[in-house]
Amino acid sequence: MLAMKRTAPHILPGFSLSLGITLLFLCLIVLLPISGLLWQLGQLGPGDFIRVMGSERVLAALRVTFTAAAAATLVNGVFGLLLAWVLTRYRFPGRNVLDALVDLPFALPTAVAGIALVALYDRSGWVGSLLDSVGIQVAYTWWGIVIAMIFTSIPFAVRAIQPAIEELDPDEEAAALTLGANSWQRFRHVILRPLMPSILTGVGLSFVRSLGEFGAVIFIAGNLPYKTEIASLLILIRLDEFDYPAAAAIAGTLLGVSLLLLVAINVAQTRLQSYLRTGG
Question: Where are the transmembrane segments (predicted)?
Answer without folding.
Answer: 12-39, 59-88, 100-120, 140-158, 195-224, 244-268
